[in-house]
Specification:
By secondary structure, this protein is mostly beta strands. The protein is 0% helix and 50% strand. A five-stranded mixed beta sheet has the order 14-21-20-17-18, with no helix packed on it. The protein is elongated, with a radius of gyration of 29 Å.
Length: 232
């Protein structure tokens, strides 16, 4: 026999025993010296972590900007028993702080960023939640691009004009996706940072470009205007 689940309550701790090697469960309640049946309405079923810039969620990955301070906040379900718990923040086996929140002044100080939360009830029974803080910087679009703002391009409907730009990501292993909107049409260019496009009528046109990294952080190049004029 071995313990299957650990669930704790504000006053009672309920252990489920499973008898391995059979197809039916055998509950050994007769062996437990419990004066009263535990009140299952008072159990804490889950703990988790979210950061101060986001809503509560059940993800084990927390994405934050590597340049901005942030707080990690513990939550429990149901929330009405949260005040009866004690929380401990660990990085692996190293205890960093006690309390239901922790403030990270410098995200670059990775040795102070926890990856494990432990909650204990008044009888010292515990639940654990493992998570990972992902430090990310948004990509950046350079201001210079082709065509430049207010450029006049000479050609006709069949002339392929060059559109070129540059982007930068502080995270070297990140994969960038680029999008360019020319007039009312959006083109996904993937990792490409230049295309050629034809089909322009004479007159005024505009374009804008934005880049998105693999975590959804983005940057946009401000809308630029150019003119197409048929060559004499």
């Amino acid at each position: 026999m071995k313990y299957k689940d650990l669930r704790f309550f504000d006053k009672y701790f309920f252990l489920k025993f499973f008898l391995l090697g059979t197809y039916s469960f055998l509950f050994l309640t007769a062996c437990l010296d419990i004066p009263n049946t535990p009140n299952t309405d008072k159990k804490v079923t889950q703990i988790g972590v979210y950061w101060s810039g986001a809503d509560k969620n059940e993800s084990s990955s927390i994405l934050v900007n590597s340049k901005d301070p942030f707080s990690l906040i513990a939550y429990s379900k149901p929330s009405q028993y949260h005040k009866h718990l004690k929380f401990y923040w660990y990085q692996d086996q190293k205890l960093i702080k006690e309390g239901d929140s922790i403030y990270i002044q410098s995200p670059q100080a990775v040795s102070k960023i926890p990856n494990r939360l432990v909650a204990k009830d008044p009888e010292n029974h515990s639940l654990e939640f493992k998570f990972k803080v992902l430090l990310n910087d948004a990509p950046q679009m350079q201001k210079e691009s082709i065509p430049q703002n207010q450029d006049t391009l000479f050609g006709d409907f069949y002339t392929a004009f060059l559109f070129s730009w540059k982007s930068y990501d502080p995270n070297p292993n990140d994969r960038l996706q680029h999008y360019i909107q020319i007039d009312d049409t959006v083109y996904e260019t993937g990792t490409l940072t230049s295309i050629q496009q034809s089909g322009f009528a004479p007159g005024k046109h505009s374009y804008s470009i934005w880049v998105v990294d693999s975590y959804g952080a983005s940057d946009t190049l401000k809308n630029k205007v150019f003119y197409v004029m048929e060559a004499l």
